Every structure is written in structure tokens, then in C-alpha cells.
């Protein structure tokens, strides 16, 4: 006599293999989603400074509001990832390593928001002596963030190859290029700081203080982008 057939409800989800469940889901897709939201914040920073150079406060406020919205989205994704990140020992990478990369990515969005807040709250316009170099500096810092974004988008391929082989070599080369870009931003930021120093007497003292702060924050975009790459390089080397 045959065994009775068990019919599952139409919307029932088949039970998961208990062994397979130990390995958890690939956490990289959420990390990549977070980096896309971070990149969306950084991409608005050049527009913000274009508005500041034109002394267009309304436009600067509009862009700052957009950065706030995108930073909030990055926070939402970050919190979701932290909440649902598997704790099993069979994750493809160390949980602490992944959270470190997430925090560095999130710092980029935070810095973009800090930049926007400072520009808007202080109604800052680009001083004439800085105008020639400010646009290229901002764009190069954002380009460095784009390079970090490109590295993170390679995580799926790295996982498939076990963080070894040609893909790992290619990603290592991308990280090296990322570091070179960050070095360029350091030199550009230092040049702008020297220009600001030479023209301090022409500007209001409080304005000078905030412009030094703003130059540091813009450079931080590239600094955190490089840290994302360096942390991933250490992960590959393990």
C-alpha cells in the first residue's frame, strides 16, 4: 500500500536544508546596495559646490536636502544589513571584516552630509582664490569614491573565485589605482590649503577657519574610499 501523499498549501515555502542553512546568505549584495546609496550621496557634492561658486543658496539647499535623503537611505540599508547579517561560522568572510567595510562606506555618506550641512548653514560661497582648484579637487575626490564603488561591485566575482586567481589580481590592481587617486587628492587638497593660507588676510577670519575645515572634509571622501579598498585588500590576502 502506497504512502499517503502530502499536499503543501499553495503559498508554502519548502523547508530549507538544515546543513545549507548554516552557511547563510551572501551578504555582499546588501553591501553593494549600500555602496550604491553612498555613491549617490557623493555624486551630488560637485553640484553642491557649483551652486556655492554661483552663490545660489536656494540650489545649494535643494542639493543638501537630496544628500540628506540619500544618506538616510544608506543608513536604512546599513541598519538592515547589521540586523540580518548571519552569525554562523560558515560565512564566506569574517563578520567583523564585512562590518568594517560597511562602516567605512557609511562614513563617506556621513561626510557628504557634513559637507552639505556646513555649506548651507554657513551660506558659504567659494572664495575667488580657490575657484580654479576647487572644482577639480572635489571631482577627483568623488572619482576616488567611484573607484571604491567599482571595487565593491566586484565582490560577487571575488566570492565565486574564493578570493583567488585572476579576479583577485584584477581587484588588487583596481585598489592600487584607487590609492593613486587618493594620493592625488592629498596633493590637490594641500595645494588649496596653501592658496588659502596666502590669501587669509583677504578673507574674514571665521570664513578662513571654516574653509580649512571644508577642505579637510572633502579630502575625507577620498580617505574613506581608500580605506574601503585597503580593508578589502586585507580580506583578499587572508
Q: Determine the N-to-C terminus distance.
A: 57 Å
Strand content: under 5%
Rg on CA atoms, Å: 23 Å
The CATH architecture term is: Up-down Bundle
Characterise this structure.
- The chain has eight helices and no strands.
- The chain is globular.
- It has one domain: Up-down Bundle (Methane Monooxygenase Hydroxylase, Chain G, domain 1), CATH 1.20.58.220.
- The chain has helices at residues 28-43, 45-53, 57-84, 95-121, 131-152, 155-160, 165-198, 205-237.
Topology:
Layout: H1 28-43, H2 45-53, H3 57-84, H4 95-121, H5 131-152, H6 155-160, H7 165-198, H8 205-237
Helix pairs in contact: 1-3, 1-4, 1-5, 2-3, 2-4, 2-5, 3-4, 4-8, 5-7, 5-8, 7-8
Characteristic terms for this protein:
disordered N terminus; mainly alpha; single chain; 238 residues; Methane Monooxygenase Hydroxylase, Chain G, domain 1
Summarize the entry for a quick read:
The protein is an all-alpha fold and 238 residues long. The protein is 74% helix and 0% strand.
Amino acid at each position: 500500500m502506497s504512502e499517503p501523499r502530502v499536499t503543501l498549501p499553495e503559498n508554502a515555502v519548502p523547508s530549507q536544508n538544515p546543513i545549507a542553512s548554516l552557511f547563510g546568505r551572501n551578504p555582499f549584495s546588501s553591501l553593494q546596495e549600500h555602496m550604491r546609496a553612498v555613491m549617490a550621496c557623493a555624486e551630488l557634492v560637485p553640484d553642491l559646490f557649483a551652486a556655492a561658486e554661483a552663490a545660489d543658496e536656494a540650489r545649494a539647499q535643494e542639493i543638501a536636502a537630496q544628500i540628506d535623503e540619500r544618506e538616510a537611505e544608506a543608513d536604512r540599508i546599513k541598519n538592515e544589513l547589521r540586523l540580518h547579517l548571519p552569525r554562523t561560522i560558515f560565512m564566506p568572510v569574517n563578520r567583523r571584516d564585512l562590518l568594517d567595510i560597511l562602516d567605512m562606506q557609511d562614513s563617506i555618506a556621513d561626510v557628504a552630509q557634513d559637507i552639505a550641512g556646513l555649506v548651507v548653514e554657513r551660506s558659504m560661497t567659494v572664495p575667488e582664490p580657490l575657484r580654479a582648484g576647487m572644482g577639480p579637487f572635489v571631482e577627483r575626490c568623488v572619482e576616488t569614491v567611484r573607484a571604491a564603488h567599482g571595487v565593491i561591485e566586484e565582490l560577487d566575482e571575488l566570492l565565486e573565485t574564493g578570493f583567488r586567481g585572476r579576479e583577485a589580481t584584477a581587484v588588487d590592481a583596481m585598489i592600487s589605482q584607487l590609492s593613486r587617486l587618493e594620493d592625488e587628492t592629498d596633493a590637490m587638497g594641500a595645494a588649496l590649503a596653501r592658496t588659502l593660507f596666502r590669501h587669509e588676510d583677504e578673507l574674514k577670519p571665521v570664513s578662513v577657519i571654516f574653509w580649512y575645515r571644508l577642505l579637510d572634509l572633502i579630502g575625507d571622501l577620498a580617505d574613506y574610499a581608500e580605506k574601503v579598498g585597503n580593508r578589502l585588500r586585507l580580506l583578499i590576502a587572508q
